Amino acid sequence: MTDPTPTRTQTERADLTRARILDAAIHEFAENGLAGARTEQIAEAAGVNKALLYYYFQGKDELYTAALEAVVETVRANSFAVLESGLPAGERFLAIVLNHFDRMHSNRAFQSLMQQEMIRLHRGESSAMGPIAEKLMRPLWARVKAVVEEGIASGELIPVEWTQMIYAGLGANVFYFLSAPMTKWSQGFDPLSAASLESRRKVAIEYLGQGIFIDREQGARVAARVLAATPMPAPSKIEINKTELTGATPHQVRR
Q1: Which of 201-236 are b and which e, b meaning 16 or more Cβ less than 10 Å from the residue's Cβ?
Q2: Assigned CATH class of 66-254
Q3: Longest Cα pair distance anywhere in the chain, in angstroms?
């Protein structure tokens, strides 16, 4: 009697192995940075030996580049799916702002890797920001610009310079997360708690609906529709290594 379960081809098994290595690498680099990551840990987490890891990737630098590219591609695909959803322009803009907020909250691997690259860039060290800009940031900004201009031309959105719309939406998200530690110390509540995040994302989208739509009642309805269609995702289990990101010693971080 033959086994009804189809067997994977050698190529399929190789692809799965490579994917496991990349997934383990993303977690390791996000937690410990390029300098602190260990290929031994990556191999162990992927369930392979180091020899097999080096069969797929020549070294840690190549593995880091591949991991970064994989994360960037996931973000690019997710963002463009929102921007090209076929919804009216104003609704698409609110949806991409909410998508951006949720990514900052839930995709901590991407946020950690981006912060590391920004720090290396500011230090004048070798950085992958150039390729990231070409593959993700430049096409993403161009597509958001087109959405904003479409909404203005149709009379749906208020006529303003297009970058201001982006700063009002995406910039507010960035500030909220970057200022979270100071907010916690100065205001006495945790802005990154589940309840605070749920409240903030709702308030942010409702505010934009009131602020950027010519018809405020329409904006309120669109904001409610976008929020109802997109439940808040759970955070990823990536703990960012603050020593790598700030340059502080472990003792300073604990303090």
Answers
A1: beebbbebbeebbeeeeebeebbeebbeebebeeeb
A2: mainly alpha
A3: 71
